[in-house]
Each structure stands twice: as structure tokens, then as C-alpha cells.
Amino acid sequence: MLCAERMQRIIQAFIMGAILLLVGSKMYAPAFIIYAAMMFMLFFAGVSGICPGLTMLKKAFPPCEEKKEK
């Protein structure tokens, strides 16, 4: 079953693919804007520990359960 964290990774993969398609069709400005926005979001999430995209996804999908080790 899809959970929020997995869905976030799937969406990131689609965004990276879209950036590659834009670069391949020589649409550098939109590719750069999308790439810069994604970079900013990942940097913000890394520094603050708050990921706005993941927060929104958790409203639609259940969070992934971590394996509890004894």
C-alpha cells in the first residue's frame, strides 16, 4: 500500500523526469525554475525538519510504519 513517504519519493521521481524532459526539449528556463524550487524545498526540509510536501501528503495518505526492533 502506498504511504506518504513513498508517495513523496514517487512524486520527486516524476518531477526529476519532467526536468529531464524539459532540458531535452531545450526549455531551460522552466527546467531551472522547477529544479530550483525542488532544491529549495529539499534544503528547507533538511535544515528545519519540516517538509511541507510531506505534511500535505500525510493528509491524503497514511504515514509509513517504521519497523520496530526489539
**Quaternary structure:** single chain
Query: Mean pLDDT, as a whole number?
Result: 90
User: How many E strands?
Assistant: 0
Beta strand %: under 5%
Please bin the fraction of helical residues. over 70%
Shape: flat
Ends apart, CA distance between termini: 25 Å
Poorly predicted runs of 5 or more residues? none
The main pleated sheet reads as: none
Distinct helical segment count: 3
Order of helices and strands: HHH
Structure class: mainly alpha
Gyration radius (Cα, Å) is: 15 Å
SSE arrangement:
Elements: H1 4-24, H2 28-48, H3 52-60
Describe the structure.
This protein is an all-alpha fold. Helix content is 73%, strand content 0%. Helix 1 packs across helix 3. The longest helix is centred in the first third of the chain and has 21 residues, at 4-24.
Name the features.
mainly alpha; 3 helices
Short description:
The chain contains 3 helices and no strands.
